[in-house]
Each structure stands twice: as structure tokens, then as C-alpha cells.
Write a sequence for this structure.
């Protein structure tokens, strides 16, 4: 079941806040609905935000917005979350099509093309990522990077599932991913559906798990990657990369070209979203810390490129020096249809 689809002149989506307890599909019928779904993490995952944002612009156009009115609504969607560059990339592509004269049906076609391309790039990344994994052994992942995060096969989790389906005997250790538990709620759900053996761990156990469980690779997704390989991803990723480097474990980032921000020379300028205090000092409506306790709650951190062993894209595997390999990625043309995975 796709986490996002165009249906009955609206954008239908799985509310990921409700998983795994129940599968609830909601409808975004207005730009305000789209923005709220993004801001509240009902829809999340960098590539999926791009798909959802593109459908959101098509929705605004279908509702009669044109010219500056359409641009205003598109920019509201674009600004709904600041870190994941896929959302901005997709909205900008929709606006470029509108500037070239695309009407509402044509803009919906562009949104559907973005969704199709996401599925196709996921398949390519899954194959390349799976080839990097051992024939047998333990791997570790963080946050959620499967179909729920992309609308396709997934990024890092897509590679793990592809390796499993190719006959590799992997056991996945899944960080719970505080404070919103995307690993516990979503990644374990997807791994169970795929039949991949997995064990859930608390975030603080990741380094000990690397040492005691023979972890042979760490795979994560990304929300934005700078030209030097600095990678913004879910909070806790930086610590994982440091622990992996200490233990001599390869640390792989799996992300499509739409996640790269070629305007940034390094990660210092990546905007880091900070979320509400109650995500940390309460859970399920019950307080877990004293009332009014000060909280620092960044949603993302930036892992320095020198800690990243390789970056898997739809064009293949990039390796250091990233200032050179990422520069070649920027110049690559969009994949022709004949080269895309079916």
C-alpha cells in the first residue's frame, strides 16, 4: 500500500503517527492540509516529502490557483519543514513546469512523474546498496528509510531488503530513534512485513551492539547532503558514524540525487529543524520530565563527510574524495527511460 497516492481530486496518505497500532488513511484536500501533514510528521521521510509536496502543488492547481496564487501556496508547502531538500527540489520542479505553461492536468502529470522516478531510483539504489553488504552477518540502521519514507522501495532499508531477497542472511539491529520512535514504530513494521530478521535496540545501545553483535555495516538515509559529503540525517546519525569509525565498521549513506544540495560546499549551512519540547519531556500524553524542563530537540544532525564510507545513489556508489565524486553526480543527466528500472 503506497503511503501517498492521488485519489478523488485529493492527496491520500497513510498517517504515520498512527503506526504500527493502526493503518489509517487520510485525505489532504487543501494546501493547509498538506502543510499540516508535513509539519506534524503524518507524512515524513525526505523522498516521500518530495512526492507529497509535488502532489500538493498539483492539488493547489487543481483547486484553481494560478500564477502568483499558485506560487504562494507552493512556497507554503516548500517551507513546511526546513531540512529535507527533496521537498524543496520537488516544489521547485513543479513551479518550473508551471512557469513553462503547464496547466493543472499537466502539473499532475509532473507530480506523477516525480513519484514514478522515486520508485525507479529506489530500485537502482537497492541493487547497488545490496551489493555492498556481506553474504551473512549483522547490520545496523537508524530511523526509517523504507517504503513509508519514500513511496518506493526505500533507501537504506530498501538495500537491506534487496540483500535479503537476494539470499543474503542478514540480521538487522534497529535503533528505536528517539524521540518519536520511527525505528521502533515504522522500521520494525516494514522489516517484519518483508520477513527480514531484526532486533530492536535503544539508541544508547548502538555502540555496544556494534562491539558485541559483530555488526558489519551501518546503513542510513539522508535529508540533505552537501558537496563535501557532509550529511544531515535524523538526530543520532552523527553519533552512529563516530561509533562505526571507532569499531572499523563501514558507514553507508543511501540517498537519491534529489537529496544532494549542490549549492552548499559543506554541512555548516544546512538548516537544522528544532521541534517542540514536549516531544522529549512527554510521551503518549504523559509527562516524562518535570513541567517546564528546558529541552534541546534538534530533529537532525550533520555527519562529517570523512566519516562516510560511501554514498549509494541511483547512479552508483560514490566514494571519497566527495568534492570530486559529488561534482560528477551534479553533471549527470536525468536517467533516460531506457535506463530506468522497471
Amino acid at each position: 500500500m503506497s503511503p501517498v497516492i492521488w485519489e478523488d481530486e485529493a492527496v491520500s496518505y497513510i498517517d504515520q503517527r498512527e503506526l504500527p497500532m493502526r493503518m489509517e488513511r487520510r485525505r489532504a484536500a487543501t494546501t493547509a492540509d498538506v502543510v499540516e501533514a508535513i509539519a506534524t510528521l503524518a507524512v515524513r521521510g525526505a523522498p516521500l516529502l518530495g512526492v507529497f509536496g509535488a502532489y500538493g502543488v498539483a492539488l493547489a492547481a487543481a483547486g484553481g490557483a494560478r500564477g502568483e496564487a499558485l506560487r504562494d501556496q507552493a512556497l507554503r508547502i516548500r517551507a513546511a519543514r526546513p531540512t529535507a531538500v527533496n521537498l524543496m527540489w520537488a516544489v521547485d520542479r513543479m513551479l518550473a513546469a508551471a512557469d513553462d505553461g503547464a496547466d493543472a492536468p499537466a502539473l499532475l502529470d509532473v507530480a506523477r512523474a516525480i513519484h514514478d522516478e522515486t520508485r525507479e531510483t529506489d530500485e537502482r539504489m537497492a541493487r547497488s546498496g545490496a551489493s555492498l553488504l556481506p553474504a551473512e552477518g549483522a547490520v545496523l540502521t537508524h530511523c526509517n528509510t523504507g517504503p513509508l519514507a519514500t513511496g518506493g522501495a526505500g533507501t537504506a532499508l530498501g538495500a537491506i531488503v534487496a540483500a535479503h531477497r537476494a539470499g543474503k542472511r542478514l540480521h538487522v539491529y534497529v535503533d528505536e530513534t528517539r524521540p518519536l520512535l520511527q525505528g521502533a514504530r515504522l522500521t520494525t513494521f516494514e522489516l517484519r512485513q518483508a520477513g527480514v530478521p531484526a532486533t530492536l535496540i535503544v539508541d544508547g545501545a548502538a555502540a555496544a551492539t556494534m562491539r558485541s553483535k559483530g555488526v558489519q555495516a551501518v546503513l542510513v538515509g539522508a535529508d540533505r547532503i552537501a558537496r563535501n559529503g557532509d550529511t544531515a540525517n535524523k538526530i543520532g546519525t552523527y553519533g552512529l558514524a563516530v561509533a562505526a569509525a571507532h569499531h572499523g565498521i563501514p558507514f553507508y549513506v543511501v540517498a537519491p540525487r534529489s537529496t544532494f544540495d549542490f549549492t552548499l560546499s559543506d554541512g555548516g549551512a544546512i538548516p537544522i529543524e528544532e521541534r517542540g519540547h514536549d516531544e522529549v519531556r512527554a510521551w503518549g500524553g504523559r509527562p516524562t520530565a518535570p513541567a517546564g524542563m528546558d529541552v534541546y530537540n534538534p530533529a537532525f544532525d550533520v555527519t562529517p563527510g570523512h566519516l562516510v564510507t560511501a554514498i549509494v545513489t541511483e547512479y552508483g556508489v560514490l566514494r571519497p574524495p566527495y568534492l570530486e565524486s559529488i561534482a560528477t553526480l551534479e553533471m549527470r543527466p536525468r536517467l533516460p527511460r531506457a535506463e530506468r528500472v522497471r
User: Anything to note?
Assistant: The radius of gyration is 19 Å. Residues 338-342 have pLDDT under 50 and may be disordered. The chain has two domains: 4-119, 121-339. The first strand starts at residue 4 and ends at 7.
